[in-house]
Amino acid sequence: MYSEWASLSAQITANSCGAQCFSVLNKFPASAGREVVVSVVKQLGTNLGITQNAEPSHLVKDEEVKWCMDVICFGLSLPLQEHETIKDCVNVYCEWLTALHPQPRISVPKPICEDANLYARQIINHFHNLFVPRQGEILPFLYQTTLGADTIKRQAVLCHRVLRTLQQTAQISHLMDRQTWDTLLLFLLAINEILLAPPTVKDDVGDQLCERVLSVLFEVWLLACVRSFPSPSMWKTLQESCAMWRHRVALVDQWNRVNLALTARLLEFSYGPAFPQLKNAEEDGQLIPVGMSNDCVAQTWYRFLRMIGNPTALCSPHIISKSSHFVQWALTHEKGAETHQHPCLQQLPQIFLNAMKGISSQVDAFLALPLTSMGAGVELAVARPKCNSILHVFHEWLFEAAHIGGDTWRQNRKKQACEASKRPSSMIMEHRKGSISLSQPNSLNDPQSLPPTLTIDKYESGRAEAIGTLCKIFCAKKTGEEILPVYLARFYMALQQCLKITESRECDETLASILLHSSDLFRLDLDGINVLLPGFIAALEIVLPDKDLKLKTQSMAFNRTELRRSAINILLSIMVLPLHYQTLPIRDLVTSETSEKIFTFIQLKSRLMNILMNALQVETDAQNTHMLLGGLLLCVQDAVTFEETELGGANLSHNSSGVQNQHHEANLLSSACSERSVSLVSAGTASLSGQTTATMGAGSGSIRDTASSAHDYPSLTISDDMSFEFGQELDSGTTYDNAHALFVRATYLVCHRLISSWKTDLNVSLAALELLSGLARLHIRETDALECKRAVKWICDYICYQCSRPPPAHSKDLHSTIVAAFQCTAAWLMQHPYLLQDKDCLQTVLEVVELGISGTKSQSKGGDIPKFKDEKELKPASMRVRDAAENLLTIILEQVGYFPSECGPESISSLLDEVALMKHCNSMAPAAATSSEQAIAKFKYFVTENSTILALLEEPLGNDQDPQPTVTLLIRGPFGRHAWTMQLRHLPRSKSGIKYHAVNPGRPIPMNDVTQRPECEQKNFPEGVDKVQPCVADYSIPTIEQIREQYGSGSIRELEAMLENQSIHEKLAWAEADTSADSLSHAQECVPPAVCHEFHAARLFLSHFGFLGFESRNPHNPAESLGTPPQRPLIVLDTKSTAFAADLERLDKLSARTHDTVYVFYVKSGQTSAQQIIGNMAEEQSSGRDPHFASMLQTLGWPVQVAEHSGWTGFVHNSWSLKGTPEEHVNQAPNELNYNGSQRVIYWADVSSEIAFVVPTAWNLRHNSDTNDTGSISSNQDQIGGSSNVWDTMDGGGTGLAKSKSRNLSLELDTTRSRDAKEPVPPTRRKGNVTKPTLLAQAPAKIFLVWLESYEDYLNFPLEDMLAYTRTGEELHTLQLPRASDCHVIFVHSLLSGLLRVKLQGPPGRMSFATPLVDGMVLSRRVVGNLVRQTALNISRRRRLDNDNYQPPHVRRRLKVQDIVLKYKMDLSEAELLAHLFQRAI
Fold it and tell me: How far is CA 744 from CA 576, 637, 1235, 1401, in A?
C-alpha cells in the first residue's frame, strides 16, 4: 500500500536518541547543569499561577526564550530522582503550549505567542527527554527497587500531564500548521516506540502508560486526518511502528475501538439513515472529530484497518519477536534464550483472539448484527452489502486465520521452513521491518522450540472466531446473489478442515463456532454447499445426541442451549435432502486417486434419523424440543409421502449397487445401541472402547447383545412397560429405514417422553400432542392395530395422570394440555376406527371420557365395584375439560367410522331443514314456494334436557306409500342438526312389506245349519261343593234370606226385576241376530276397514321414548311436580312468534366445528406494496408466477364452489347455508387460481375443524368495503331468509327423490369418494342478534401464507395494509379489530434446489408458534401443503386454548338453544301439554 513511499522511522530514532543533545547545558558537568535548571525553572514556575497569581512573562526577546528553553530541555533529561524539578519543567512547557490556543495564558512569553508553531515544535521535541531512558537507567527494571516503583508512578503522572496537554492543544488549536502536526505525530510515534517496543514487563512505565499513549496517538491521529491529513510516509511509518508493538494487548484493543468508531460513521453515509446504526460505547462515539468529511472517513477507515498488518502473524511468535529489543533481551538473558521465548509473548493467543473479535465486530456492523448476537434467529439488514464486498476487505485475514493449526497450514509451514533453510540467515533478520505475513519464511520457525503456552492449539479461540465470522458472512447471502467461486472454494476448504472430528470426539471451540453461526448455510442456495454435508452430519453426531455435552474451550464461552438450537436449525435444513437427491453422489472436496468412498445422499438418511431421535431423547430445553418435534413430523410425513408418490408404496431401500456402509445403514430402531450413543448418553456406563461405530456391522443381533449389558442407553426400550415381544418385533425386522419404522419409533419415543418428562411443560406437551395427531393422520400400509392401540393407551394415560395431579398443580396450562390430549385422542380414533372394535381400547377411551366429564372413574381399579353416574358427584377438572370430553364422546358415538357422510366433509349436520322437508310432504302443493315461517308452522317444537330442540312433523313424506304412524324429526343439538324419519311398525319391514288385497280371499262356503243348543242348568259352583263340610269362613258370606232379613225384601225385589229385564233383552237380541243379514245363516264376505291415515305420531314418539312419563308423578305433591320449564323432561316452544324462524336460522348458522381462514399471497421479488402483491393474482399475471405456487395451492385442500358449498367459505354471510347454484354462476369459468371467495375457495375439513384458504384479489377489498357499508350485525337476516335451498336444484327432472332420503346417524361411507376428500371441518362465530349482540373477546387468528420469490422481502411485507383484504365479517363481533401485530405469517421461499424454506412470524407469546412447521425449516414440495395446513390448524387451536373467554362450538350452540328456550317456552301444565299433543299442526 505504501511500498513506494519512504518511511520516517529513521527520523523517529534520531529524535529519540538526539533529544538530550538539544541543550547547551550538556556541555557542562551534570551537577552544574542541574543547579542552573533548578534555579531557572523554579523562577519560571512561580509566574505560572499555580501557587500564586500568574504574572506576565519577563521574557520578551527570542534569545531569552531560547536560552530558557535550553535550560528546560536539559531539565527534562534529569534523573527521575529530581522529580520536583522535572515537574516544574513540564508545567512551564505545558503552560507555554497554550500559545496555540485561541486564548493563550498570560504567563506565555510574547515571542512564543508571536510564532507559536515554531516554539511548539521545539517544545514537542524537548518532551522526548521526559520519555526516553536516562543514561545508565533501564526503565523496565526500575520497579525492582522500592524507590524505582514510586519513581515510575511519578514519571507516569508527568507523562499523563504532557499527553493530556498535547491532546487538548490538538483538539482546540486552530493555529497549528502542517509542520507542527507532523512534529506532533512523530513525537507520539516516538514515545510509543520507546514505551511499547520493548518486551512487556509487568508494572513498568510502558505497562502503565500503554493504554494512554496509544489512545492519545490514535485520537490525535484522527484529528490530524481532519486538520492536516498525514502523508503516505507518515502512514507507512505508523504501520511499521504498530508492527513492532503487536505483543501489547492494548494495541489491538485500541485498534478495534477506533475501527468500530470509524465503521459506524462509514455505515451512516454509505447505506443511509435506514441502515441499522452501529451502537458503540458513548466515549467511543466521540472518537471521530466532528468535521471529518465522508471521503476522509472512508480513507481513514481503510488505512486504520490495515495498520497492524495481517493479524495471523500473531500466531507466529518468531515474527513478533524479531525486533532489536527482543534480540537484546535474548542476548542478555542469564540462561540464554530465544527471542520467541520471552514471557510476554504468552499473551499472543489472547491478542490474536481480540484481533479476530475486532474483525468479527466490523463484519457484524456491515451485516447490521447486534454486537452481542450469537446463533440463529437474528434478522439481517435488507440493505446490507453483498458478501463479495465484505470478503474483498477481510477474506485474506479470515481465510488464513481459519486454517491456523489445520492440515493445510501445517503443510505450508513445512514448505516455508524447508525454503527458509536454503536461504542465508541475513535475509531473515532485519532491524525495523518485522515480517507481517505468514507467507514470508522464517528459519527460526521451529515448533519444537516453542513453549507449551504458545503451541498452535492455543490459538484455537482466534481460529474459531475467524471461521465463525466467515460463516456469518456466507449466511448473509441474499436471494439471487452470486459469490465468487474462489471465495466459495476457500470457504468450503476451511470448513472441511475445521469440521474434522478429533479422536477424542470432543466439541472444541472451532466446531462450536461453526455450528453456532451456520444455521442458514444449507438454505441459501450456495453453490456446492452439499459437499460439506458429511462433515456437518459428523459434527451434529457429536453435539446433539450428548446429554451432557463437554465443550473443550479456552477463551470463548458458549451457551450450550444456544449451541444445540443452532445445531438443530442445521439439522432441520438438511433433513429432506436424502429423499430429495436420493442416489446422487456427494463429491469430496479433496479428490485423490485413492479416494475411499463416494457417499450418496440416501446413505445419510439413517444417520440423520438417528441424530434426530437421539437428540429428542436427551433434549431438555423447551424451544429446542419444540423444533425437534416439528422436524420429526416432517421426516415421517416426507417418508410416507415419498413412498406413496415416488415408490408407489414400496419400501424404501438403499441402492445396492453402491458400496454399503453399515454405519450409514444402521438399524434405525436400534440406533441408540451404537457404541457412540452408549458412551455419550448413558451416564456411568462403560464405553465400548476399541470399536468404532462404523465397524459394528455384524448384524442387529450382535449390536443388541453387546448393548444389552448396559441398560441405560437411549434405545427404544423407552419404558419398563414395553413388552418383550415388541422388542423382538423391532429386532426381527429387515428393513428399518422406511416410513413404517419411522412411524413406530416416533410414536413410542414421543409418547414415552410426553408421560415421563414433558407433561409439566405446556408448549412441549402441545407440540408432542400435535405431532401425535399428525402421525395419526398418516396412511401407512404396514400400520397394524397394536401400534395404534398402544399410542391411544399412552395418550389416555397422559390424560389420567394430568387429571390426577394435586389441586395446586391444576392451572389453565394444565387443563389446556388435557383438552389438547382429548383432541389428539379423537384424531387417532377417527383415522383408525377399528380401534373401537377392541374391547380394551374402547374401555380405556370411555373411562377417560368419563373421567373428563365427571372427574372420577366408575372403577378406580379393576376389581372395584362400579359406581353408577347417579351415585357420583360431578367434579370435572374444569368446564373446558368436561367440554372436551363431551366432544370426544359425541365423536365416538356419531362420527367414528361414519365420517364423512353422504353430505361430504363440508358438513357434519344434515342438509335438510323444515323448508326442504315440506317440499316433499304430501300436504304441500308441488309447485308452492314455502317460506321458513310456513314450514315451521307444520312442525311441533319441543326441547329436552334444555339443550336439544326436537322439531316433529307428523305427516309422511311424499315418497312414502305405506301408511304407518310416521314422524319426521329435525334434531338440533350442541353437535349439529340431524334429520330422522321414524315409523311405528308391528312387524319388521321384511315381513310386512307384501300386502294382499284380493276381493275373494278364498274362504270355504259357510254352513247354514243351526246347531241345537242343549238346555242346561247354570251352576255357580262345582257339583261336589255340597259334599265339602263348611267352615266358619263359609258362613261369613250371607245368604239371600239373611240379606232379605237384614235389608228388607224391597231391595231384593229390585235386583230380581233387573235380572229378569236383562234376560228378556238378551233373548230379543238373539232373535234379532238370527233373522238379520249378518247372522251366520246370511254371512257375507268380510271387507277390510279403510286404511287409517290419521295418527298422533308425535304423541306416540314422545311416549315411546320416555318423554311423557307422567304416571310416576303425583301432581299434588310438590316434590314430584314437573318443576319449572328448564327442569321438565319436555318443554314446548311457541312457534307463532315471527322471530322464532330467525332465531332457528341463527342456530343453524352456528357450526358444530371450529373454523379458520388462511389468506394466501404471492410476492414477486422486490414488491413491498399491497397493491403490487394483490395484483400478482390477476389473470394476466399468471405467466409470471412460479408454477410450484399453483401446485402448493392444490395440496392445501380441495376447490369448492361457494354457491354450492355448505361449509365455511371464509365469509360469514354465505357460510353454513343450504344453497343452490344460481344460474348466473353456472356458466362462468373462473380463473384457475381464482380462489378469492367470490366463486371458489380452497377448503379442507375434518370431524372437528374446517379451514378455508382464500387467495385475495382486488375483489376482496371492494367486497369488504361494501359489506362494511351495509353490514350491521342484524342486517344479515334478509340474506339468511332469502338464501336458496339445496333442494331447489332437485325439483326438476325427478332427481329430488334420489336425495330425499332422510339422513340418520348411521351413515355409510361413500366408497367412491377419495380418502383425501373425506376429512373434517371447524367452528364459527355467531351471526346476528340474539337478545343482545354476542361479542368475542378475542378476534379469530389471522393466518397468512406468503410465497416469496426473494426471501429478504419478508422484512418489508406490508402486513398492516393486507388486513383490508382479509375480512371475514366476524370483525363486527369482536371487542377489538385484528391488528398486524397479532397476525401469524407463514413465509415460503422456493430454493433453486426445488426445496422450500419456511419463515414463521407471529405475535410474541407462550403459545404463538405451533408445529409441525418450524422457523427456518426446509421442506420438500411433496409435503408443503399438508404441513402448512396442520400448522395453521394448530396455531388456531393454541390461540383458542390460550383464550380465557373462548367457548367451543357445541357450547355456543347449547347456549343458543337455552336462549331460544327462554324466549319461546310455553309454561304448560301436565294436562295442557297432553292436550297440545292432540292438536294438529296448522
Answer: 19, 13, 38, 32
